[in-house]
Amino acid sequence: MKETQRFAGTRAAALIEGLDAVYGGIDGEQAAWRLASPFQCPPGCGSCCVNFEPDVLEVEALYLAAWMIAHQGERAQAIERGEFVSPRPDPERGCVLFDPANPYHCTVYGGRCLICRLFAYTGDRGKDGRPRWKPCKHLPLEGADLGALRRPQYSEAELLDRFGTVPPMMSDIAQRVLALDPDGASSRRPLRDALPDAIRKIRLLISFSFDPPNPNAPAA
Ligand code: SF4
Ligand code: SF4
Predict the structure, then answer these.
(1) 54 lines ligand 2 (CB under 6 A)
(2) Which domain range does residue 140 map to?
(3) DSSP 8-state symbol, 77
(4) For 99-150, what is each residue's pLDDT tens digit?
(5) Is the CB of 194 inside a 6 Å radius of any atom of ligand 1?
(6) Ligand 1 atom 1: the closest Cα is on which residue?
(7) Is residue 217 part of a domain?
(8) N or C: which end of the chain has fewer CB within 10 A?
(9) For ligand 2, is residue 95 a contact (CB within 6 Å)?
(10) Ligand 2 binding pocket includes 49 (Cβ within 6 Å)
(11) Secondary element (H or E) of residue 149
């Protein structure tokens, strides 16, 4: 992927590419559920980010860092230097990359964290290990034949009966991400703490990857 080209061959690049493959599969896994489910996030909602900040694994922070360095270099530099000013007036309440004035709200959509890709369109497993799903409280119930629908949790049997399919399971996808870096599996940090370190790490790798000047090269 182009975001890792400047530090290709490093462990960080391999982790990011592994995560990219997991992220790439999520849309496909959610597609059948999105088609079958009458619950769709309303355009421009973003309420899930208002009072929420992701706790991330290092691999997620590295992915977002590489994406920001490639696409939002000045913002990445500001974050690294501790000079970043969040677009939101209340950054203590939630994700600092959320912009309430932007109609899409997430200012790093292409690099966003795992949980940000799972909201709304993934389920979880109950104590019996079977899939279940609960609609987000902000998902609107209007606009479809929702007379028989309700907000409480749906069992696997109910999901199959009503919609003919189940959403992908959050825990299954999370396991794939944990397997990328088993040693880092227990070290989650709030995004605002993990991201500056990740940006620093990637920028250091990029600086190492430049070819050193050749002292024997003919003068220009
Ligand atoms: S998951 Fe819920 S809060 Fe988030 S965008 Fe969808 S409807 Fe809105
Ligand atoms: S990274 Fe984007 S989607 Fe994730 S919490 Fe922040 S604003 Fe929301």
Answers:
(1) yes
(2) 2-207
(3) H
(4) 999 999 999 999 999 999 998 899 999 999 999 998 888 877 654 445 455 5
(5) no
(6) 120
(7) no
(8) C
(9) yes
(10) yes
(11) none
Nearest protein CA to atom 8 of ligand 2, as residue = 49
Number of domain units in the chain: 1
- State how far the alpha carbon of 64 is from the alpha carbons of 15, 24, 127, 209, in Å: 12, 15, 33, 20
Query: Domain for residue 220, yes or no?
Result: no
More confident residue, 148 or 17: 17
Tell me the CA–centroid distance for residue 14 and ligand 2, in Å: 24
pTM: 0.90
Q: How buried is 119 (Cβ within 10 angstroms: 0-12 exposed, 13-18 middle, 19+ buried)?
A: middle
Q: What is the mean pLDDT of residues 54-60?
A: 97
Pairwise pLDDT comparison (156 vs 216), residue with the higher score: 156
The alpha carbon of 12 is separated from its chain's Cα centroid by a whole number of angstroms, namely 17
Ligand 1 pocket, residue 139 CB under 6 Å: yes
Mutation test of ligand 2: which of 86, 96, 97 has the most ligand atoms closer than 8 Å to its C-beta?
97
Which residues, in sequence order, are CB contacts of 78 under 8 Å at separation 6+? 84, 85
Instruction: Please name the residues in contact with 115: beta carbons below 8 A apart, sequence gap of 6 or more.
Output: 54
The helix or strand, by DSSP H or E, that contains position 83, with its residue range, turns out to be: none
| pLDDT tens digits, 66-110 | 999 999 999 999 999 999 999 999 999 999 999 999 999 999 999
135 within some domain: yes
Instruction: Indicate whether 212 belongs to any domain.
Output: no
